[in-house]
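Students often ask why inverse folding is considered easier than folding. One informal answer: many sequences map to the same fold, so there is more than one right answer. In these notes we will look at a single instance of the problem. The structure comes first.
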């Protein structure tokens, strides 16, 4: 005989408690930081009505929630002073024992729905989840962003009901006493809201996964196919990589130097090497003169790194040895040694020593850069191909004929100068000249890279020094053996000599490029300049 469902006389109470986090509580003042300094934490409060208790009397098992039966609570306030996003989380736990009751209703029979309202419209955060799956777990994580000067209000509604699968007893055989069972069973739930300065995410997505979602959701990041075309339909496209392209991009990342000062970097895109994806960044501003030595000594060879000239002190040399310009082989360039070492033979600090240990821990140990040469009149697509045209190259063979076009190996699949390395692997490099060009809107990718003067791109438009400082790329130039490609201050790509009066007069500078490990994740921020992504290893 079939079991019959009955109305349950069960009181279910939503009891809201305020719990205190490890380093931050919902109070106006708290002690945080290494030196235990006082910090105004912002005026953030959680509210609920004391009479706002959800009680289900004679509860009938339901297929879905009762729209008129919910427990409501609000988080509101400002966050003007912390300079950090303030995170909070919501959890459900067992409430107190109900007087006169003996047995909690089974966890899988109690159902929940959570709704948020912060813009005047309700948004369902989850629906029809059993207490068995969410007991004592975070059911929602959110934040009050830093620099929130205007009062905000976020209201939550928690609906509870008895699942329709609830059955009690076999009434037809009179072996069940309905009144006794109803008097015994109860449910009591606490809604806990806690907050602290520990930066959290709702899920465990990697940075790569979050960025790729921007492409799938028609965000600022775009997918590119094997022919360097923008993927108009991602579902039917063989994707080679993902890049930020256009005038503006919310792709700011904050990394720290060895004094824990924040530095802004920009996301170039998501790329793949040997089946592993990684995120590539470029420094938003060029390296300041204060961290660049004049000379750098490696294996008894003195490389000129920057000039002593008072007129243009920021000028940086790509590969200038003992006063003589040298080959455009990045694997042996003085600038490469400076970027990838802690110090030189005489104890002069290298750029690697300026990064914090946290930042260095996120860097891939070895990322491959291709060293094919590029012509000034290449299109964006052609530049990308030439940089990687190495399959027919033979390293270390043939004359090293400076200023001789024939020194470039003639094989159709090879654009590498004879005697040069075809690839370089390391931690810190420079962007390709094609990286700069791909920053332009995709409508410009068929144009020659030396005709893009003045065209807007996200780095040129937002970096304060992009319009009056030329930046080296890692790409050798086809036109001359002691030239490399540069992004000029006018916005176009061209070849630049390593060192002469012309080079120093246009203030050649460097924006280091790095690649992040695949298990780096975003823990806060939205990618805007005022709220950059902050990262950690998962």
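Output (designed amino acids):
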């Amino acid at each position: 005989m079939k079991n019959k469902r009955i109305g349950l006389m069960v009181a279910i109470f939503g009891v809201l408690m305020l719990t205190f986090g490890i380093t931050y509580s919902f109070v106006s003042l708290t002690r945080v930081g290494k030196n235990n300094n006082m910090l105004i934490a912002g005026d953030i409060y959680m509210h609920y009505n004391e009479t706002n208790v959800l009680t289900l009397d004679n509860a009938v098992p339901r297929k879905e929630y009762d729209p008129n039966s919910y427990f409501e609570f609000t988080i509101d306030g400002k966050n003007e002073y912390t300079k950090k996003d303030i995170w909070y989380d919501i959890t459900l736990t067992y409430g107190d024992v109900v007087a006169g009751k003996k047995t909690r209703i089974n966890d899988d029979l109690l159902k929940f729905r959570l709704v948020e309202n912060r813009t005047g419209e309700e948004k369902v955060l989850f629906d029809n989840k059993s207490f068995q799956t969410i007991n004592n777990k975070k059911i929602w994580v959110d934040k009050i962003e830093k620099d929130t000067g205007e009062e905000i209000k976020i209201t939550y509604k928690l609906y509870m009901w008895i699942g329709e699968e609830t059955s009690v007893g076999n009434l037809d055989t009179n072996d069940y006493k309905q009144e006794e069972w109803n008097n015994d069973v109860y449910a009591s739930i606490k809604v806990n809201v806690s907050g602290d300065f520990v930066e959290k995410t709702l899920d465990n997505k990697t940075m790569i996964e979050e960025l790729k979602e921007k492409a799938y959701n028609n965000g600022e990041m775009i997918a590119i196919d094997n022919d360097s075309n923008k993927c108009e339909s991602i579902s039917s496209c063989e994707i080679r990589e993902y890049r930020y392209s256009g005038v503006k991009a919310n792709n700011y990342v904050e990394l720290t130097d060895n004094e824990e000062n924040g530095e802004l970097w920009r996301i170039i895109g998501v790329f793949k090497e040997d089946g592993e994806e990684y995120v590539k960044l470029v420094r938003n501003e060029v390296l300041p003169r204060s961290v660049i030595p004049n000379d750098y000594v490696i294996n008894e060879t003195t490389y000129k790194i920057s000039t002593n000239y008072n007129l243009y002190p920021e000028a940086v040399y790509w590969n200038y040895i003992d006063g003589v310009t040298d080959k455009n082989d990045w694997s042996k360039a003085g600038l490469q040694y400076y970027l990838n070492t802690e110090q030189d033979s005489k104890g002069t600090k290298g750029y690697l020593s300026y990064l914090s240990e946290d930042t260095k821990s996120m860097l891939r140990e070895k990322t491959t850069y291709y060293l094919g040469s590029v012509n000034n009149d290449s299109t964006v697509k052609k530049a990308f191909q030439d940089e990687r045209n190495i399959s027919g190259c033979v390293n270390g063979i043939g004359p090293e004929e400076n200023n001789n076009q024939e020194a470039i190996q003639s094989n159709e699949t090879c654009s590498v100068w004879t005697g040069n390395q075809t690839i370089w692997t390391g931690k810190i490099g420079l962007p390709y000249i094609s990286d700069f060009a791909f920053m332009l809107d995709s409508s410009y990718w068929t144009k020659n890279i030396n005709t893009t003067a003045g065209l807007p791109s996200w780095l040129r438009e937002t970096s304060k020094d992009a319009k009056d400082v030329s930046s080296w790329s890692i790409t050798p130039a086809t036109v001359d053996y002691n030239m490399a490609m540069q992004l000029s201050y006018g916005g176009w790509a061209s070849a630049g000599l390593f060192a002469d009066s012309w080079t120093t007069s246009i203030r050649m500078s460097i924006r280091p490029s790095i690649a992040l490990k695949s298990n780096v994740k975003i823990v806060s921020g939205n990618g805007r300049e005022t709220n950059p992504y902050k990262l950690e290893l998962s």
